[in-house]
Automatic annotation (TrEMBL):
Every ABC transporter domain range: 8-237
UniProt cross-references to Gene3D superfamilies, sorted A to Z: P-loop containing nucleotide triphosphate hydrolases
Signal peptide extent: none
Domain of life: Bacteria
Oxidoreductase recorded as keyword: no
Name listed for the protein in its UniProt record: ABC transporter ATP-binding protein
One Pfam short name: ABC_tran
Amino acid sequence: MSNTRPIIQAEQLTKVFGNFTAVNRISFEVSPGEIFGFLGANGAGKTTAMRMLTGLLSPSAGKATVAGFDIYKQTEKIKRHIGYMSQKFSLYDDLSIRENFRFYGGIYGLSTSMIRKQTDDMLEKMGLTSEKNTLLKALPLGWKQKLAFAIAMIHRPEIIFLDEPTGGVDPVTRRQFWDLITETAYQGTTIFVTTHYMDEAEYCHRISMMVDGKIKALDSPKSLKKQFDAGSMDEVFLKLARG
Ligand SMILES: Nc1ncnc2c1ncn2[C@@H]1O[C@H](COP(=O)(O)OP(=O)(O)OP(=O)(O)O)[C@@H](O)[C@H]1O
């Protein structure tokens, strides 16, 4: 992985709201196919950083490229090369699974046949083929999250940004969701994921730990535990947060 060109590069990336610095000069690189975890407490600046990288929010300073495109000048190109599942992902409750795929596929400009193929492939993979005509509102939250993930991948992006994708679901469903993430990365898609569940950090190839807008540590889970002489990522985080 380390021999390939980074698919995300951020240098001194900063966002200031009024006189409050939400993201404070963060620098990092992500390799293609990597699962890159963005960890931190509530308000650490994870969502703000992600919104800058997805082209949704203009930075105050610093620079970054995503899939080779500049986050100031090429936001439209970035949007075509990435998928994004926000914290408040919104699928349509009154539409069926298939109709949701059709709707979002249309937004991405995919052909009807491509949408059909992608829908069939993904539902098959998730074991949801028999439910394709079920309305979203009849499904458990965990299924909706998996569908939101699949729909964010419908245009086969190079990178997928996931903002706390497993919030509010039970541990078994969280585990299944991470199986989906791992498989997707294995197939070559880069995963950029924020979470505040420290156990989820173990599934990431590398983790950046954010505290008050800054990246305080960045390495593999194994190296971080060694570096901080900690038995778990939870312990690493507590040691970091206490400074
Ligand atoms: N548009 C905004 N205007 C002013 N302050 C903002 C704005 N957006 C975010 N903030 C502040 O920036 C800080 C970082 O927020 P952010 O949502 O990036 O954190 P986070 O790490 O993603 O937390 P969470 O886990 O709660 O989503 C917070 O203190 C938040 O109140």
